[in-house]
Amino acid sequence: MERLLVLVRHGQSEWNLKNLFTGWKNPDLTEQGVEEATAAGKKLKEMNLTFDLAFTSDLLRAQHTLKLILGELGQEDLPTSRDQALNERDYGDITGMNKDEARQKFGEEQVHIWRRSFDVPPPGGESLKMTAERTLPYYRSDILPKVLEGNRVIVAAHGNSLRSLIMELEGLSPEEILKRELGTGKPVVYRLDEDGKVLSVEDLAEI
C-alpha cells in the first residue's frame, strides 16, 4: 500500500511581491504565483502522481494554488478540506507592514527574532511554536490517518504551517526547522510507512 503525502507552499502572492508580512490577510496569487502553481501541477503530472484527497487553509492564495495544481492533473473535483488550522502564522501587529520598514521601526535584530526564533511571537501574533500548536493536532487527527489508510493526499498551505508539519515528519529540532526554506509553488513528496514514519522525501525545488 502506498502512503503518499505531498506538501506544497502556495505560489507567490501579491504581498510576497510587495515584501509585506501577510499572515492571515488574504491576497491572491501574482501572475508569477499562477505560473508557479501551474508548473507544480505539471511536475506532479510528469511523475504520474494523482490524489484521493486534498487539504488546504482558509486563505485564498493556498486554495488558488491547489485549484491550479488539480486542474493540471485533471482532478478539479477532488474532495477537499479547508481549515484555519493550516493558515499561515499570524503576524499580529506587524501584519501588512513592509519588512524593510519594520526593520527601520523596530530594529534589524528585533525583526530577525520575530521572524526566525521558534517561540518569540511578534506583538499580537504567533510564534512558529504557537503555529505548530494549532497545525499539528489537525495533521494528527485529520490528515495523517487518511494517509495511513492508503489515500494519496496533497496539502496546499503556507511556509510556516508547512514547516510545522515538516518538523514532525522529519524529526527536526526547532533550530533545524528555522533554517528550512520552502520555495513558493514547490512540492515536497513524502512516502510514509504504516506508522507514519518517512520512507523517502523528494523536494521538487531541487529538481
Residue share in β-strands: 5-15%
Proportion in helices: 40-55%
* CATH structural class: Alpha Beta
Number of helices: 8
Distance between the termini: 26 Å
Largest sheet features: 6 strands, mixed
Uncertain stretches = none
What overall form do the CA principal axes indicate?
globular
- Helix/strand order: EHHEHEHHHEHHEE
Order of strands, widest sheet: 3-2-4-1-5-6
Q: What is the CATH architecture term?
A: 3-Layer(aba) Sandwich
Instruction: Name the CATH superfamily assignment.
Output: Phosphoglycerate mutase-like
Total separate domains: 1
Q: If you average the pLDDT, what whole number results?
A: 95
* DSSP strand count: 6
Task: Determine the structural class based on helices, strands and strand pairing.
Answer: alpha/beta
How much is the radius of gyration in Å? 16 Å
CATH topology: Rossmann fold
Characterization of the model:
With 207 residues, the protein is of the alpha/beta class. It has a single domain, classed as Phosphoglycerate mutase-like (Rossmann fold, 3-Layer(aba) Sandwich). The protein is 43% helix and 14% strand. The chain has a six-stranded mixed beta sheet. The model has no long low-confidence stretch (mean pLDDT 95).
Topology readout:
Blueprint: E1 4-9, H1 14-17, H2 31-46, E2 53-56, H3 60-73, E3 80-82, H4 99-106, H5 108-116, H6 128-148, E4 153-157, H7 159-170, H8 174-178, E5 187-192, E6 198-203
Parallel strand pairs: 1-4, 2-3, 2-4
Antiparallel strand pairs: 1-5, 5-6
Helix pairs in contact: 2-3, 4-5, 6-7
